[in-house]
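Intended use. Records like the one below are meant for learning the mapping from a protein sequence to its folded structure. Do not use them to infer anything beyond what is encoded.
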Amino acid sequence: MFVVVVEFTVRAEFIEPFQNRVMQQAQDSLKLEVDCHVFDVCVCCGKESRVLLYEIYTDRAAFDAHLASAHFRDFK
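Structure written out for the chain above:
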């Protein structure tokens, strides 16, 4: 397994659109990538500007495929 943890600090005016978009990214990744096993989006309680992603892929190649996917490029 290949685990990725990403932390974002989001400016206040972008919190809601970012959270909506990152949730869509999680759904797309889980639906479209057979080797994406977990894509959790965690928002810090009381500090919505901190968003943590916890992702599990089969291996590094699966993560590289995620980075090359159209839905990731759209998100980025």
